[in-house]
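Let us work through a complete example step by step.
Step 1: write down the sequence.
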Amino acid sequence: MIMSIEPAEPHSLLPTRASLLGRIVNPDDTASWMEFYALYKNLVFGFASRSGLSRADAEEVTQDVFNRVSQTIHEFDSNPQRGTFRGWLRNLTRWRVLDKLRERQRLDRLRAPQSAAEEGEHTATIQRVPD
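Step 2: predict the structure and record it as tokens.
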């Protein structure tokens, strides 16, 4: 499935400011994190929602992505030849969405009955005895 992140707000068309990325390296810079979250929450949540996740799962993915950004932002290389910050954020989001979809499939398989016996279609003992 091909998924794309489309800007949710007009100001999200602007390139990410290097100064903001430099400030969010500090996890205690609450004002910068609030600004960063306000800029990107709709982008991440929208991508997750359009990927087929429920609202609750999309919200969980959004929180997971921002947690991951806080843990790995110091590793982001702002080299244009390696890609943009938005591309990096898009990849983090895509990977988390795929994790959530795999988790959903795994849970669906666990919930599905494995055999007719589990569905309540039992065969009488006498019918299982060979002739």
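Step 3: interpret the result. The CA atoms of residues 21 and 73 lie 8 Å apart.
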